[in-house]
C-alpha cells in the first residue's frame, strides 16, 4: 500500500511541475492587458493614416515634406530583437543552476536594450533638430510620438525589470527551482520585442507600400 501511495504522490508532484503556476498565468493576463492597449493605439494610428490619404500630400509627411526614414529604425530594430537571445540564455542558465550564464544573459539583454533606447532618443533628437518634428506637428506628430513613445516607455520598464533581476542574480537570490522573476522578465521582454515589430511595420514600412501603390 505504501508503494502504491508513494507512486500516486510522485505522479501528482510531476503533474504539478508540468502545469503552469498561478504566477505564470497572472503574467500572461498582465501582458494581454498591455497588448490590448497597444492594439487600440495601433488601430487609432491606422485610422488616422487612412484619413490622411484623403488629403493632398497626406498627413504623414514631415515638415520638410519627406517621409520618415526607415533605415536607422530598422538597424535599431535588429538590436532590440537580438536582445531576446541573451534573455533566453539567461533563463536557460538558471534552469540548470548556472548563475554565471544567468548574469551574462541578463547583462547582454540590458546592454542591447539600452542601445535600442538610445537609438530611439537619437532618432527623436534628429527629427526635432532637422525637421522640427514634434508632438505638435499636426496629427501625425501626435500619433507618431504617442505610439513609439509608449513603446519606449515599455522598453524602459522592461530594462528596469531586467536590471532588478540582474542585481538579485548577483546576490544569489535565484536557484534552479526558484527563479520565476527571471522567467517573468523574459516573457515581458519578448512581448516588448513582438510589439515593436508590429509598431515598426505600421509606422515605417506601411507608408513605403502606400508610396509604391
From TrEMBL:
Keyword annotations: Cell membrane, Membrane, Oxidoreductase, Transmembrane, Transmembrane helix
Chief localization: membrane
Sections of the chain in a coiled coil: none
Domain of life: Bacteria
Record Gene3D superfamilies: Cytochrome c oxidase, subunit III, four-helix bundle
Enzyme Commission number(s): 1.9.3.1
Transmembrane segments: 24-48, 68-90, 102-122, 142-167, 188-211
GO cellular component terms attached to this protein's record: plasma membrane
EC class (word): oxidoreductase
Presence of keyword Transmembrane helix: yes
Stored Pfam families: COX3 (PF00510)
Similarity comment: Belongs to the cytochrome c oxidase subunit 3 family.
Protein name: Cytochrome-c oxidase
Amino acid at each position: 500500500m505504501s508503494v502504491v501511495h508513494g507512486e500516486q504522490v510522485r505522479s501528482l508532484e510531476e503533474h504539478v511541475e508540468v502545469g503552469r503556476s498561478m504566477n505564470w498565468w497572472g503574467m500572461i493576463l498582465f501582458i494581454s492587458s498591455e497588448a490590448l492597449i497597444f492594439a487600440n493605439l495601433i488601430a487609432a494610428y491606422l485610422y488616422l493614416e487612412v484619413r490622411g490619404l484623403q488629403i493632398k500630400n497626406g498627413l504623414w509627411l514631415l515638415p520638410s515634406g519627406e517621409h520618415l526614414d526607415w533605415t536607422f529604425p530598422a538597424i535599431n530594430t535588429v538590436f532590440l530583437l537580438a536582445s531576446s537571445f541573451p534573455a533566453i540564455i539567461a533563463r536557460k542558465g538558471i534552469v540548470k543552476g548556472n548563475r554565471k550564464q544567468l548574469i551574462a544573459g541578463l547583462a547582454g539583454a540590458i546592454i542591447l536594450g539600452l542601445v535600442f533606447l538610445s537609438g530611439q532618443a537619437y532618432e527623436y533628437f534628429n527629427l526635432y533638430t532637422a525637421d522640427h518634428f514634434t508632438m505638435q506637428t499636426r496629427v501625425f506628430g501626435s500619433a507618431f510620438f504617442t505610439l513609439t513613445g509608449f513603446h519606449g516607455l515599455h522598453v524602459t520598464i522592461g530594462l528596469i525589470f531586467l536590471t532588478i533581476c540582474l542585481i538579485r542574480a548577483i546576490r544569489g537570490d535565484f536557484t534552479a527551482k526558484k527563479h520565476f522573476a527571471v522567467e517573468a522578465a523574459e516573457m515581458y521582454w519578448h512581448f516588448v520585442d513582438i510589439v515593436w515589430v508590429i509598431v515598426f511595420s505600421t509606422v515605417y514600412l506601411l507608408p513605403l507600400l502606400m508610396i509604391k501603390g
